[in-house]
Structure to design on (324 residues):
């Protein structure tokens, strides 16, 4: 495993991390969740990503139970949570968003579910148009000063919103956001590579990117259609399928089919190649992997070896496939 600093902070995360989105609490049982976390730990993964909204809090509960059951050392792992969507069906106004109340209540609930005394990373899962950014910054600063959170950040915020948070924190001598969690993959690049570019030097923003495989699309598993048992084939995931495929969908599928053919020519699994491509970006602190089977996770972990084996000329060919 490789380890990278989280932006300009002193915290080092595993370059590949493991997240609970979609699978934990819903798609897989506790035994398989335990096997996945054990596999991740055995391969050097130290960062485990969660959110209050994943399976309405059940994902965090499973993750916390599994980490405790495996007796992973608290000082050896980093766990995160995210706040915004809430963890209950049909939430009341105070049960979602980024108000001081919900940010605080959600932190306490995540600590209980994850069975820890503090969160290593705590993210604002989306921007909240109904709450002043300054109120959220103050709430995060308070949690850090109380020792309940070590680093706070954002997820899917615009560069302008992050900069506003940075400016407010500096003006009031509060803790700055340390990291952003954006989507980043061969099909979704602009925000990480261009919009956030000024933020990497100042304030030294780190990124823990999600969806390196575009929800499995870049693995080639959907080249021949969408199995009803797969993530994008499930009816309740229609919104995600539409988002991943874009418009026109056939154009994006054509690019993915070309990419998987090139991966076969180079002798690598397309999933490993897509993850390795994300790791090439020096501004990526950690790539969050998801998996429902140990074999799937083990294959994706092979991206570290692929990163060292692919020549620059072949990376150029890969990027040409996805050129606008």
């Amino acid at each position: 495993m490789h380890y990278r600093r989280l932006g300009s902070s002193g915290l080092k995360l595993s370059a590949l991390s493991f997240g609970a989105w979609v699978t934990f609490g819903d798609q897989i049982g506790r035994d398989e969740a335990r096997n996945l976390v054990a596999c991740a730990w055995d391969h050097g993964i130290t960062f485990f990503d969660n959110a209050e909204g994943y399976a309405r809090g059940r994902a965090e509960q499973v993750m916390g139970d599994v980490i405790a059951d495996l007796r992973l050392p608290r000082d050896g792992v980093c766990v995160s949570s995210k706040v915004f969507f809430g963890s209950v069906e049909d939430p009341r106004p105070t049960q979602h968003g980024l108000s001081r109340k919900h940010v605080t209540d959600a932190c306490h609930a995540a600590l209980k579910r994850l069975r820890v005394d503090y969160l290593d990373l705590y993210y604002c899962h989306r921007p909240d148009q109904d709450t002043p950014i300054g109120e959220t910054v103050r709430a995060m600063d308070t949690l850090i000063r109380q020792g309940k959170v070590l680093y706070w950040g954002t997820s899917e915020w615009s560069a302008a919103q992050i900069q506003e948070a940075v400016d407010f924190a500096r003006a009031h001598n509060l803790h700055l956001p340390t990291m952003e969690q954006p989507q980043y993959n061969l099909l979704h690049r602009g925000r990480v590579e261009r919009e956030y570019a000024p933020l990497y030097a100042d304030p030294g923003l780190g990124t823990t990117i999600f969806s390196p495989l575009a929800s499995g699309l870049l693995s080639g598993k959907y080249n021949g259609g969408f199995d009803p048992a797969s993530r994008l084939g499930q009816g309740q995931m229609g919104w995600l399928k539409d988002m991943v495929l874009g418009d026109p969908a056939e154009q994006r599928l054509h690019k993915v089919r070309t990419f998987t053919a090139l991966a076969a020519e180079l002798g690598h699994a397309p999933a490993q190649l897509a993850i390795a491509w994300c790791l090439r970006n020096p501004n990526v602190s950690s790539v969050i992997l998801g998996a429902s089977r140990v074999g799937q996770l083990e294959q994706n972990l092979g991206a570290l070896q692929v990163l060292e084996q692919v020549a620059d000329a072949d990376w150029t060919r890969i990027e040409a496939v996805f050129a606008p």
